[in-house]
Each structure stands twice: as C-alpha cells, then as structure tokens.
Amino acid sequence: MYKRILLKLSGESLMGAKQYGIDEVRLAEYAQQIKQIADMGVQIGIVIGGGNIFRGLTGAGKGFDRVKGDQMGMLATTINALGLSSALTAIGQKARVLTAINMFPIGEQYSKWKAIEWMEKGEIVILAGGTGCPYFTTDTGSALRGIEIEADVMLKGTRVDGIYTADPEKDPTATKFDKITYDEIYQKGLKVMDLTATTLCRDNKLPIIVFNMDKPGNLVKVMSGENIGTLVYEK
Whose C-alpha in 7, 73, 126, 171 is 20 to 30 A from the C-alpha of 43? Predict the structure, then answer.
C-alpha cells in the first residue's frame, strides 16, 4: 500500500447531477471515500480542478485576458477546496486548505514543509490555487505538488475507469490499458494530462493511476492494490 498519495480530482466531476457548481451528494461521496483511506493510515494531499465553476482557458477563448482568466480559475479551485474541506470536517476528518497564493485567512499559504508536517499529523491537506501562476493547468499543479510533497503515486480520479486507445465515451471500440509507460503515451498521442504535467511526472519518476472516482469504493480498491484503472509508469 502507498504511504503518501497526491489525489487529483476533477472540478467538473463535483457537478455530479448538476449543470454547474457543486453537487452536495457527490461532494459527500468523495469525502467518505477519502476518509476511508485516511483511516487506513494513508497520508493524503489533494488538488482539485475548478472547471465546474470557471476554466481560465475557456474564458480566454471568450475574450477574457488569459492571465486574469487563469486567476479566476485559481479562485474556482479554492472554492472547491473549501467545499471539500468542509465536507471532510463534517464527518470527523481533519483537513486543511493551503493556497498557492496568499489568501489568509481563507487558507494558509502553501509550502512543502507545512504540507508534509500536517499530513504526518494525520490531517488531509487540500492544495488550492494551482501553481499560483497563469498558463499552467491544475494537472500541472497536481504533478508539481505530488513531486514536492514526495508522494509515492498520483491518483487521478476521473469519470472513466482508466486510459483507453480512444475516448470511450465517443468510440465504442476503444480498449483499455491496464498499464502503460510514459513513452507509450507520447508515442500514441494519448491525452492523459497535458504534456507539461506528464513530462514532470516522467522526469521525476512519479507513477500515476487513472481510475473512476465517481464509483464509490474505487478509491479504497486502488489503495488496497486491486487491479482497477490504468497505471502509468517510467521504465
């Protein structure tokens, strides 16, 4: 079992059955799954996207200044982080929000040492605000934070159960990989994460497991070593 993980959650998945914002049912399901693995003794860092509220790149395509749009996206991830923190606290799990840019008292400003200190004390740290810089996605933010906090693995929770040869929601003939190397991802042109994030993980030998987070119980199964999802690794 992994001792310390970086869990990357999709902001869009937080919409659940809604068209926008945060679905309280989905949020509670996520909190329960996360608490289950915390109770197993796993140290947990979490990065959440903000696509359920605002996506900087989409905003730039609609006329927003790209830097301001990305900053709006950073604020969206912070809203999601606060929501998840509240949901975890409500079920008795201590959680703490650390932000990439100074937002005190909304959250403490992120540092590697603070994050590790709180995780070692049994608190879940939710790392908001992406990298704190424009032009970087939350995938890149999660790769960076995973490397910084010395995580054993990045778990990328999505709405599909792994990596496929094509988009399984569009191509019924798509087949799933049980495991795949970073080099194969490049060669096959698969879009697991953006290239900056993928390269960061490869160069720092941080493995990724892509799995369906929207199915309750899957997070525990991954942590228990069950063969679900797709493992991405560096040979």
Answer: 73
Q: Strand 124-128 and strand 43-48: pairing? A: parallel
- Rounded Cα distance, 151 and 2, in Å: 9
For position 178, which CATH number holds?
A: 3.40.1160.10
Instruction: Tell me if residue 150 falls in helix, strand or coil.
Output: coil
Is residue 179 within 8 Å of residue 207, measured between CB atoms?
no
**Phi and psi (nearest 5°) for 39?**
-70, -20
Task: For the full predicted model, state whether its pTM sits above 0.85.
Answer: yes
Residue 195, C-beta contacts closer than 8 angstroms, at least 6 positions apart:
none
Number of domains in the chain: 1
The DSSP bridge partners found for residue 157 are 9, 211
**Residue ranges making up the domain that contains 14:** 4-47+86-95+114-124+133-233
Question: Is position 64 within any domain?
Answer: no
pLDDT of the residue at 61: 77
Render pLDDT for 8-21 as a digit per residue (tens, 0 to 9): 999 999 999 898 99
CA distance 141 to 110: 12
Q: Has residue 75 been placed in a domain?
A: no
**C-alpha closest to that of 47 among 28, 34, 65, 29:** 34
pLDDT at position 220: 96
Is 184 part of any domain? yes
